Amino acid sequence: MKKQFFTLLFAAISSLALAQKPSPELLNPTNHALVLIDHEGQMAFATKSVDPIQLRNNTGLIAGASKIFNVATVVTTVAEKTFSGPVFPEILEFYPNTKLYIDRTTMNTWEDVNAHKAITGKGKKKIVLAGLWTSVCIVGPALSAISEGYEVYVITDACGDISAEAHNQAITRMVQAGAKPMTALQYLLELQRDWARKETYVPVNDLAQRFGGGYGIGIQYAREMLKH
Description:
Shape: globular
Helix content: 40-55%
Number of helices: 11
Number of strands: 6
Structural class: alpha/beta
Radius of gyration: 20 Å
Order of helices and strands: HEHHEHHEHEHEHEHHH
Strand order of the largest sheet: 3-2-1-4-5-6
């Protein structure tokens, strides 16, 4: 009877431990690299698949999230000085040292020697991509990274293209190849994961209040009306 009791107790403890173990599919601050690709004026001018305000807000969410959680991040541009122009202010705010940006001539980030070295040099098997345009500048590195054995995540609402059709077909193509789609707010909350993590609780809510749309208004309301 005593032996049976301890067997059941061990089984219960083991079951509880397993229930608390998160899926390896989930992102955390240390298991991936974030790559922000071509969030530049010239690329945004022709983007029609997403409202520019929403695009900027979503870009602010992921740039801010990566800074709060110290995520290994690469910012890369294409023909910044000769054609595409500067990156969005929402990226500049969190990554003001433009000397660290990697400017390219290639449409596929993966084919640029310096960009490829910067991304793979982070030593992460998971790579999270966001940028403009989805069908060219995101499809290229996504398919290339997958072919080299990396796990690729794409933040779909921080990407955009010249039409909804172009964007949607690009996402479909990447998902068929094995990429995992997610959204900007999902990215932020997946990194936080537990509201008991007090060291990031306030900055995460501040960021969401600023860039999180209706969710951000809800945070403002709770803080003011419910003193939460």
